[in-house]
């Protein structure tokens, strides 16, 4: 069986745009403000940064660190970081106040509720982002409307509904559902909290991206306390690209010319960044159709316009992965080598781990490995963005072998 992983090193910036995209919105001072807000939320704690030393040795790299977001606020995914920070900023603006004067206990107070009245927050989601928005709205004693694309998981639907949201699974793909949600929001006076940006809708998506930066800021702090080297490579998954753009922007702003090489990993049914890089004209290429992929959280065919400029200008490579790559990653993380810690990682969370395993043990991807400079001196950072948010699917993959992979060069 041959690999169907597709990849493109990023050569767009050799001729396009000078100066490059501005990443000051993701500098450490800005991201620290987001993290200070998150610290005021009851139950906040940095999620674990797992060191996979045995797997690193097996795969021929110096170190592998994995940020495990299955512990975030008991919601089993990272997305609440963005939704909560964006909603808090929106409400602070609405009240004419500074966010620094509105920690979470103030936002949830009777006084603020009285001043705000009733606000309905609306979003489109495959599950994790919508649950984060619904959880934040419920905690603030506000309302939420959450639309999901066709084919969405029933468990994820139920988890959002349990937060008090009005939830609908729509008969269209993610990008079409986003447009329908935005139209309904304009009609009914709802506030759209969407983790993608388009012309005329950029403030809230930027706040969401900055909220995601808390993850990277925690990871850098945790890494500095581990006596390990700073990462040479960061693998991060992309749907619309909000997370990837935030991670890329943060590391570029922090480390300047010494920034790690960032590898953007997508589902092959929704690989708009890969296709944009392949075309090489500096303009985003959209993917349409059903976007039917195991990696539901990455099933987005249109880019976040803020993230696109950052990734176009700074990412090292774009990789398009079939579903079996994610399944491999889930099994590797759930069944660790020797004394490595176990990580329960969902379909969208594990694809970077699956890709790294194929890169390091697969002859057909040797050219990409060489181009990235992955070797025994490399320190790799990954982000497991969700746990088993669809438990039945997780069991089918990890226990029952759904989406099988193969012994590649006899190494795995």
Structural overview:
The chain is built from 16 helices and eleven strands. With 412 residues, the protein is α/β, with parallel strands linked by helices. It has two domains: 275 residues, 3-Layer(aba) Sandwich (Rossmann fold), CATH 3.40.50; 123 residues, Rossmann fold (3-Layer(aba) Sandwich), CATH 3.40.50. The strands form two sheets. Strands 1-10-9-8-11-3-2 form a seven-stranded mixed beta sheet, with helices on both faces. Helix 6 runs parallel beside helix 7 and helix 9 packs across helix 10. It is globular and about 60 Å long.
Low-confidence segments, ≥5 residues, pLDDT <50?
A: 408-412
Strand percentage, roughly? 5-15%
Spatial separation of the terminal alpha carbons = 14 Å
Number of helices: 16
Number of strands: 11
Largest sheet: 7 strands, mixed
Give Rg in angstroms. 20 Å
Number of domains: 2
* Shape label: globular
CATH topology of the largest domain: Rossmann fold
Report the order of strands and helices: EHEHEHHHEHEHEHEHEHEHHEHHHEH
Percent of residues in helices: 40-55%
Q: State the secondary-structure class.
A: alpha/beta
**Lateral arrangement of strands in the main beta sheet:** 1-10-9-8-11-3-2
**CATH class designation of the largest domain:** Alpha Beta
Arithmetic mean of pLDDT: 94
**What is the annotated CATH architecture of the largest domain?**
3-Layer(aba) Sandwich
């Amino acid at each position: 069986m041959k690999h169907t992983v597709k990849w493109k090193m990023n050569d767009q910036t050799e001729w396009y745009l000078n100066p490059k995209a501005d990443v000051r919105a993701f500098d450490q001072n800005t991201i620290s403000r987001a993290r200070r807000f998150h610290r005021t939320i009851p139950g906040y704690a940095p999620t674990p940064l797992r060191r996979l030393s045995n797997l690193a040795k097996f795969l021929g790299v110096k170190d592998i660190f994995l940020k495990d977001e299955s512990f975030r606020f008991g919601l089993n995914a990272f997305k609440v970081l963005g939704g909560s920070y964006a909603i808090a900023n929106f409400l602070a603006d609405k009240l004419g106040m500074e966010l620094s004067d509105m920690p979470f206990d103030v936002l949830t107070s009777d006084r603020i509720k009285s001043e705000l009245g009733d606000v309905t927050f609306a979003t489109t989601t495959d599950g994790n982002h919508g649950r984060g928005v619904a959880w934040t709205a419920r905690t603030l004693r506000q309302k939420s409307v959450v639309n999901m694309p066709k084919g969405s998981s029933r468990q994820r639907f139920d988890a959002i509904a349990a937060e008090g949201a009005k939830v609908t699974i729509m008969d269209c793909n993610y990008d079409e559902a986003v447009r329908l949600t935005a139209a309904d929001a304009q009609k009914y006076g709802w506030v759209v909290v969407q983790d993608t940006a388009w012309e005329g809708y950029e403030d809230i998506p930027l706040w969401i991206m900055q909220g995601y930066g808390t993850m990277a800021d925690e990871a850098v702090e945790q890494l500095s306390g581990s006596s390990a080297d700073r990462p040479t490579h960061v693998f991060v998954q992309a749907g619309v690209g909000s997370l990837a753009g935030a991670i890329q922007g943060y590391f570029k702003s922090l480390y300047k010319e010494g920034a790690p090489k960032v590898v953007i990993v997508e589902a092959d049914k929704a690989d708009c960044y890969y296709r944009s890089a392949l075309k090489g004209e500096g303009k985003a290429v959209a993917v349409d159709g059903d976007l039917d992929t195991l990696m539901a959280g990455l099933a987005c065919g249109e880019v976040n316009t803020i993230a696109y400029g950052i990734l176009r200008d700074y990412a090292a490579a774009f990789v398009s992965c079939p579903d079996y790559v994610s399944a491999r990653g889930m099994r590797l993380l759930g069944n660790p080598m020797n004394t490595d810690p176990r990580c329960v990682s969902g379909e969208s969370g594990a694809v970077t781990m699956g890709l790294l395993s194929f890169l390091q043990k697969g002859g057909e991807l040797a050219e990409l490995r060489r181009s990235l400079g992955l070797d025994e001196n490399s320190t790799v950072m990954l982000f497991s963005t969700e746990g088993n948010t669809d438990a039945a699917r997780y069991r089918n993959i990890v226990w029952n072998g759904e989406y099988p992979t193969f012994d590649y060069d006899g190494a795995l």
